[in-house]
Design goal:
alpha/beta; 455 residues; 17 strands; 16 helices; Rossmann fold; 7-stranded mixed beta sheet; single chain; pyruvate-formate lyase- activating enzyme
Amino acid sequence: MKERGAILLVACYELGHQPLAVAWPAAFLERAGYAPAVMDVSVEPFDAERVQRAKLVAISVPMHTALRLGVTVARRVRALNPACHIAFCGLYATLNAKHLLAGIADSVMSGETEGALIDLVRTLEVASPPAAPPQPLRVLAKLDFPAPSRASLPSLKKYAHLERDGGLELVGYVEASRGCKHLCRHCPIPPVYGGRFFVVPVEVLLADIRQQVEAGATHITFGDPDFLNGPGHALAVARALHEAFPTLTFDFTAKIEHLLRHRDRLPELARLGCAFIVSAAESLNDEILTHLDKGHSRADIEAAVQVTADAGIALRPTWVAFTPWTTLEDYRQLLDFVEAHGLVDAVDPVQFSIRLLIPPGSLLLESAAMRPFLGELVEEQFYHRWIHPDPRMEALHAEVSAVVASAADRREDAAVTFQRVRELADRTAGLPVRPISAPDAKRKRPPRLTEPWFC
């Protein structure tokens, strides 16, 4: 299988970033002496010729959207090349192993999978797979990371940009750690990593950042589930980045509780180039936050907004706006909170439409609070159905989803879309609708990535 193109790595969607989830496997395979081809169907056409040459097609599914796209890709691969081995790799692979192994995939793996992928390649080189039913593989072994291989990937110009001060800049994407030590119940990471995380050496990160800077990146996104899981490592990475590339800025994701616990580090992170922080606030209702096991409260969210602002860093909170426990009043309070704290431009409007996703294997399936609302598994869409006890909330979710999708297509000002969402919420509550006013087009807006979708 060492001939070029015998291995095809397929990315489907990674938040609008150049796909690290195929760049890293490509590097591991190249170090082992192989020459994999890569294809990112989110930004380039499906290449039937490459598929027909492949003996192994490995499809990356780190997200729910990627999984749904990946299944479509797998079926096209099977139709074109029935003899090739199809593997699914990533968080959503083993969560959905039962369905995938029932005819779509030949193998599935998640966790630290690069070594297991090389083992699979070597097995396929010498023999056909065993006749026994394939078993999902969850790998949690520390790896020796090479720098990701990006030379064969589409240009950074094809991916999300940083919108800052009225201009657009190229963005690179790295991960300083993989996995997470926390066990938030609605997150797909705990069922795979079980509270473990693995750090990437600073020198590997710098090598990856360097190749993206040479490709034109002026900003780097740290895509770790939580950059501050290892705060000492995070600070060492940020210092090394700033020393090597003094003008480069960056963003990262961190839990609310970590922003408060490490508030004394935030001013230095700002000086080192941190432009904004994404944090999964999820809800302002303390009972809902307990159901999700988030580890923070509404008061903590308010404090985090303040400490990041004091440090000179923009906070971009994300929300799960619709859960079975979210009341109409909760939803309206969320909108009021965003407006009162000056966060309208810091929240992508799609956040106001996000509905709690419960994939197979979710820790929420074990929750007594979730049980009264839980419906059947929708196999082809890879989630468990749930129905809100208030029909008004189901209707509001449908209306908000339509409004924000249409607004995104039109590239509407986020402040106008926010007012449209608030109008829907007020009307649902039977309250007078506030008029939509034109926002100041010249106002100072916090930096943001141009890709608003995130799941």
